[in-house]
Amino acid sequence: MVNRRIFGFGSLVTKGTHDYDWIGTCRLAGYRRVWVPSNTWDISFLSVELDPISTIDGAVLEIRDKDWPSLLEREKGYDVHHLDSSRIDPQFNAVSLFVGRPDAIDPERARPFLKSYLDTVITGFVDSFGVDRARGFFTSTAGWENGVKEDRSAPEYPRAVALRADIKTLVDEELEKLGI
Predict the structure, then answer these.
(1) How does residue 40 score in pLDDT terms, banded at 50, 70 and 90?
(2) C-alpha dist (Å) from residue 52 to 28, 81, 133
């Protein structure tokens, strides 16, 4: 059996969205998160891009061989990139990263991200890193100009978790700071 390790930087940080083995939290140097407009869906999704001055929080997950096909289906808009372990603190070996596939991104058209997607991601960041570092998600992520689709009353994100009052307040405060 072969297990694979993935650095999760968005919804994979939220334990309620999967049952993969949680290895630990860490920081990844040289990348930043970015909302990218999908050419398949009418929304933006989270990806990463190289940025030599940025560092992002995330989690390392171990994916059982039998679960790899379903994870690839879940992350079908992404390519798998292998990471240099020296970029990860603390260091983990043999870690990969999902990066939005160029043919899955439509840079010519702004599409909003789902608020239920953001709520789900921030739930994982608060639970894993605390409120202050969860707030850092907003400053370490680009692409906010794509806007937000308000779907809290009927979440469209397929892995949406139950919205907690503390998450609602944090997300709304941070989006207001960003002028969204």
Answers:
(1) confident
(2) 11, 17, 20
Element (H, E) at 171: helix 165-177
Cβ contact 18:61 at 8 Å:
yes
CA distance 137 to 13: 12
**Tokens describing residue 137:** 């998600």
Contact 100, 33 (CB under 8 A): no
**Are 67 and 6 within 8 A, CB to CB?**
no
Contacts of 39 (CB under 8 A, 6+ apart): 103, 104, 105, 106
What sign for the dihedral angle of Cα 43, 128, 137, 33?
negative
DSSP assignment of 97-144 equals EEEE-GGGB-TTS--PEEHHHHHHHHHHHHHHH-HHHHHHHHHTEE-G
Taking the model in full, what pTM does it have?
0.94
Q: Which CA distances in Å does 162 have to 20, 51, 68, 115, 158?
A: 19, 33, 26, 13, 12
Average pLDDT over residues 122-148: 96
